[in-house]
């Protein structure tokens, strides 16, 4: 990184669903400008699994509101059970991280995309003020300006990952932190996003396969889940590679 260039964004990444017997593994990347840490000062520094479902949903709602306002951004990737069986969990988690970052990268690129419509009733300075974190694609397309930092997100962000997670090699400024979801707030927020997003999917599956109680255990290997498996056998979303262990 050239001298004088500071990271414009900081990204936290975490996963949920590594251990369940069914359903997807879910990755989430939470992105915030480095000068906007005050926006998350009131959020908890806690692993999402240690928060009540009510609190997780409450904080997720606040994060979604900040995203809609263009102040932060996040992306989610669900890697389904069949790919876990086919490729293995480790490869799927890597794929999920890559997908999350590419989603953020594509949104970020819109900040520096020339907009031929800029100037028609809008000055270049006004156009350049649009936040690259806003949710709407039309809101993100702005005119190229000498003041815009045109480095790709991979060279313009610091990435912090939980546990043993690793981002693709092009993201040079990355760090893995053991128990990061309990030590670093942006990782904890990524954990909340991943957990709430995956739980929503598992509640949907619970309606399709009511005999397993997915809405309660979310696919983890509880006594009730094992009892249902013994009685009904696996359904189409079970990870057969996990059941053979």
TrEMBL record:
Keyword Protein biosynthesis attributed: no
Gene Ontology CC: one annotated term: cytoplasm
Described purpose of this protein according to its UniProt entry: Endonuclease that specifically degrades the RNA of RNA-DNA hybrids.
Domain RNase H type-2: residue ranges: 8-245
GO molecular function terms attached to this record: metal ion binding; RNA binding; RNA-DNA hybrid ribonuclease activity
Subcellular location: Cytoplasm
Co-factor(s): Mn(2+); Mg(2+)
Cross-referenced PANTHER family: RIBONUCLEASE H2 SUBUNIT A (PTHR10954), RIBONUCLEASE HII (PTHR10954:SF18)
The organism's taxonomic lineage, starting at the top: Bacteria, Candidatus Nomuraibacteriota
Alphabetized UniProt keyword annotations: Cytoplasm, Endonuclease, Hydrolase, Manganese, Metal-binding, Nuclease
Keyword Repeat appears in the UniProt entry: no
Note on cofactor: Manganese or magnesium. Binds 1 divalent metal ion per monomer in the absence of substrate. May bind a second metal ion after substrate binding.
Protein family membership: Belongs to the RNase HII family.
Root EC class: hydrolase
Binding residues annotated for a divalent metal cation, in chain numbering: 14-15, 162
EC number: 3.1.26.4
BP term (GO), one: mismatch repair
Name of the protein in its database record: Ribonuclease
Top-level lineage group: Bacteria
Region called Disordered, residue ranges: 117-144
SUPFAM superfamilies in UniProt: Ribonuclease H-like
Pfam short name (any one): RNase_HII
